[in-house]
Amino acid sequence: MAPTKYTNRTIPKVSLHDFENRVEEITAQLIHAAETDGFFGLTNHGISVTEIENMFETSSSFFSLPDDTKATVPFSHLNAGWEKNAQIRPSTGQPDQKESYQMQFGANMNGSWLPEETLPGFKNNSFTFMKQCQEVSEKLMLCFARGLGFPDDYFVKAHDISRPESQTVLRLLHYFEVDDKVPVPEGYYRAGAHVDWDFITLLFQRPGQSGLEICPGREASTSFGLGDEWTKVEPEEGEIVCNIGDLLMSWSDDRFKSTFHRVKTPSVVGEDYFGTRYSMAFFNQPCTDAIIQGPLGKYEAVTGKQFTQAAMNRNFAALKAKKEALEVVANGAKDGAAVAAA
Ligand SMILES: O=C(O)CCC(=O)C(=O)O
Ligand SMILES: [Fe+2]
Q: What's the family (predicted)?
């Protein structure tokens, strides 16, 4: 495969300081970023560097548990729980080189928490952090509602975390250290190229633990952006990287763009970061009974549950097509070898 083409893009930065007084200015900045890049760095959002670092410590205490313990809360079809080397991306056909644990506020999380005595304080710390993420998200939701001509609380109500129907997720991610002497097989990524299917994602990274790459939705014209130009996003202390998901793209009648992104498996010694990488992604998902339709009615109205199901179905269909294509290539290679041997 041809090597990735890289380009340095300026990443839009949006500060939420003095939110109440600056809401019009912030709304204009967010709408511009959503229409052009589909992603931006958020500063002065109210979650301190210490609070973020404490949640990273909480995350690492979870991943330090034996696999047997984590396997007691396995990934469920309700989008909660733990998985390891299991998420296969349609863009690569290979499992991501990582483990993750997904937590929710609502009923989908029943049975997916570890007992308190296994990891004292874990659930409480996680909820505190998730609520802080929700507060930040609600500010963004107010601005996006205004920008699209909806009532201020329109998106906030559709993402109400106090209801059992809530589907919002905090995903803790852990990418394993990579041996710089072992060549990376073709198509391997810590996380393969994808767009998120939520409303908007808040991504937390740790300074120095690089690897995130983005390809703004508007410019992505090839399959999964593989032939497009990518940009490396270096983690900045305290910053939240936000990207528009497919849900907001659809809810804005495609005015806002969801953004392709991925995490590279390190391969270039002296350039890439080979150590352990931790990240955390807060996915704003609609309540199962929320009604989704853009102001222009470009797409038929669907419920949050239907939207989520359709996104998962699309993912499975794309994955099946990728696997079949890989089999054709593998069989072709075998045929070629047979001819060469004859
Ligand atoms: O770990 C990261 O930086 C990205 C994770 C991600 O994109 C995802 O889980 O959807
Ligand atoms: Fe993502």
A: Belongs to the iron/ascorbate-dependent oxidoreductase family.
